[in-house]
Amino acid sequence: MIQYRLNSKNIIERIAGPWLQANGNQGKVRPETVLGRNIWTFFRGTELISLYSQLFDYVRRTEKVYEVPFRCDSKQFKRLMKLRIEPVRQQAKALDISSTVLQEIKRESLPITDETRIPPQRFLVCAICQRASLSGHVWLDLESFAKDYLIFIENAPPPMGERICPDCLSAQLPADHIVTAHGDVDRFDRVPLILFLHGEAQQEHLFRLQAPPRLVATGQLLDQAPPFYLLTMIKRQRGPWDVRQVMTILNRISLSYPIDIKRIYLTGLSSGGLASWKLIRTYSDVFAGAVIAASTPLGGINLSQLKTPVWVTHGGLDLATSSSRIHRVMSELIERSAEVKCTVFPNQGHDCWSSTYHRNEIWRWLFEKSL
C-alpha cells in the first residue's frame, strides 16, 4: 500500500509505504522533491484534476471515506488498483490517500509501429481505466487497441491518459462537471471558456458522445478554435437544469483557472438549450456569445432585454420543438435589434447539434465575440 497525506491546500506533507522503494530509490523521483509540493503537479490533464478535486472536496465536506478503482500500468504489467481517500480527523481538511494493488497482470509486448497504419487523428487514453479510443465512442484495452492500430513502439510504456472515458464517468462519482483543456492553454495568461449544457437524453456519461465534448476530446477543433477551456456540466437527475447551481460552478471555475472573463461563451442543446435561454436572459453580463441547438425559449422566458449575441440552430423536421415558434422568436428579437442568427437544417429532426457543432463558421463567429 502506498500512502501520502495532503493538507487543506492539497500540499503533500507525508509519504510512506512502497512508494519510497518504487519511486524514491530509483533516483528518478526522490522523496524530498515530492514533499511540500501540490499534488496537482503530478496529475496530467485538466479532466483528471477537475474530477479528483471534486472527490477531495466531497470527502472534506462529508467526512466520509471514498474509494475509486483505477489502473496504473507499466510497460511490463497491467495493475488494477484502488484509491482510498479518507479525512484526517485530527487535522482540519487534511486527507490521507492510499493506493493498493488489487491485481497485477503481466502484459505482452505491444506491436512495433507501422507508420502506414497510424490513424490520422490523435488517440485517447483514459486516465482511470487505461483503455484507448480514437473517436471517443469505442474504448478498448490497450493491447486490443494496439493490435488494431499498431501505434505503439515495442516495449514502450503506454502513454499517460489525458481524458476520462464515458464508462468511468458513468460511475456514481460525486462530480457535477468536468473541465477539458483544448489546445495549448499554458501558452497564454488568459483563455476563453465555453460552458456546455447537454440534453435530457444525455444523462450521466452519454453527454461525452455529443459535440462539443467529443470534438474537443478528439482534437477535431484544433484548426477552428484558439486554445480554450470547456466546462461540461453533468446533470444526473431528470428534470430542468438548476441555473443557479450552474452559475455557482461557473463562477468557481472562472476563479480557479486562467479564464478571460470577457470571453465566456455558452452552448446548449435540447433541454440544455432551454437552460441556455434562461442563462443569457438573466446573466447577459457574463456571456459574450451563445450557440443554442434544438431548443426554443418557453413562453415565460422574457427576452425583451436580451443583450447576448446568439446563434440558434433548428431541425426542420424537429417534432420535439416548434419550428414556427423559433421563427417567431427570431423575428421578435430581430425587431428589437438583438444580435441573433438562425440556421435551419431542413432535412434534420431534433438531433441537429451534430451539424451545428461541425460548422466552422459557427465557431469562428463565437470566438469573435467579447464583452
From TrEMBL:
Identification of the protein by name: Dienelactone hydrolase family protein
Top-level taxon of the source organism: Bacteria
Entries under InterPro entries matching the protein: AB_hydrolase_fold, Dienelactn_hydro
Organism: Pseudobacteriovorax antillogorgiicola
Annotated ranges, domain Dienelactone hydrolase: 258-350
Keywords of the record: Hydrolase
GO molecular function list: hydrolase activity
Pfam family, one: DLH
